[in-house]
Amino acid sequence: MIADDIAVSVRDLGRVYRLYARPQDRLKHSLLWRFGRKYGCEFWALRNVSFDVRKGETFGIIGRNGAGKSTLLQIIAGILEPTVGQVIIRGRVASLLELGSGFNPEFTGRENILLNGAILGLSRAEVKERVEEIIAFADIGSFIDQPVKLYSSGMLMRLAFAVATHVEADVVVIDEVLAVGDVFFRQKCYQRLERLRQRKVTVLMASHAMTEVEQFCNRAILLDKGQVVFQGTASEAVKRYYLLEQLDRTPTLSEAVSPDHDTSAQQLSPGPPPWPTSKAFLDLSKVHQVSDGSAICTGVALTNSSGKPTRVFAQGEVAFFHSEFELLRDIEVPIGGVVIQNDKGIHVHGKNTLQYGSRVPRCVPRGSRLRFSQQITLALQPGEYTFEVGLATISGRVYDRLKDLTHQELRDHVFRLCHLSQVGPFRVTWRVEWDTTQLTHHGVADLPGECEVWFIPPSGSDLDKTNSDAECRGTTSVGERDKCRNRA
Ligand SMILES: Nc1ncnc2c1ncn2[C@@H]1O[C@H](COP(=O)(O)OP(=O)(O)OP(=O)(O)O)[C@@H](O)[C@H]1O
């Protein structure tokens, strides 16, 4: 028996898979295991998983890739059988797992809405009542009367989300689904989730988007290697997730920094770590590169200040964004830049060599390579980010008159040569000092600044006689504070 306020109860859940080194072992195992001959080895995708979700809770399931989130949600949604353990659910479950998995590809969107409604046990009248609402939410125009096999992944996602969140289920199970879709639709989805929450629908969501988990979930579990390593408040689970991520940093220093790095390259400004080795460079084969034919990007790497390639940085840590471009024609003054975007697509920071005042060559002949190592202190809210790199140029004549030009005038003289968007991603994690997570600021960015404190004692008090308020002005420096205290 489970308590009345529990909507989902998961008890000692486990799911095992058998992994085979060779395809023929699978066949041998299926034929011979009855006779005691086993092939392959067992792999527990989930083990000893237990937790309760209260009615009306929005519950997060987080963990690194392969942690077991999808396996768990599939078992809860009744799509997958557990090997051991049990799941008790009170009420009707609507799930939004693999995109379009609940749809018949030959049926139109409208027919699939009716089908899903029927599967969920809604009466014909109930489904009819909601069809128009679902269609309006999905907003896919005339495609609603086309077979769903013709839908793009974005359309499938729109329809699947609309169905799962409009069928009056008691429990809604969502796997990573908000990663797809444009920003406007995502906003609509969040509003819808908010409404479900207000109506006390229980939502279980697996997500890699930590800001969403913090924002929407009351509680969460953190899975690692198939086991629950933490359950508690969503914000604490997210902090623990980032700590796990920190342990996951990529190649070692010896792999990352070449002892014999390319000394032929003339470094035009001092400071950055050596140019990274080829291993540190990101795979750009799937990154969209836009070029006017004057230059191509030949490499992008992201490293920390010791030159070690990494995708995880502590808040306030320095990151180096390295990019290399090969010139296919002569250009005059090059401009290299990086733009950082958060998971909502907002440009949180962008800066180029003009804005840094970097030393740059006056002309760069065809066939040369240009390398930029841009150092940025990631004083950002913990979360997931992507970045863009680009190369542009201006004429030497304009470059000499920079100070006289307005921003608009300058923009008219800048020619974009090559641009790569959505490179990355990388994460900024909470900074941990002395085993304590530090919150350095609130909001998306830590803006440079200082705070002075003025202490004005009540008039007539003893303090008033011994202090002048101007003297008791405090800064963030401990020395100043001590001076003030000594005087008081
Ligand atoms: N059919 C299968 N056969 C063998 N192993 C499987 C199977 N399905 C999943 N696994 C393994 O189980 C583990 C958990 O997978 P699962 O998809 O649940 O992880 P996840 O946390 O959802 O990962 P991601 O965040 O990458 O989607 C992984 O190591 C995966 O390789």
UniProtKB/TrEMBL annotation:
The keyword Transport applies. Residues 27-250 form the ABC transporter domain. Residues 462-472, 479-488 have a biased composition (Basic and acidic residues). The keyword Magnesium does not apply. SUPFAM superfamilies: P-loop containing nucleoside triphosphate hydrolases. GO terms for cellular component: membrane. GO terms for molecular function: ABC-type transporter activity; ATP binding; ATP hydrolysis activity. Residues 254-273, 462-488 are annotated as: Disordered. Keywords: ATP-binding, Nucleotide-binding, Transport. Pfam families: ABC_tran, Wzt_C. Belongs to the ABC transporter superfamily. This is ABC transporter domain-containing protein.
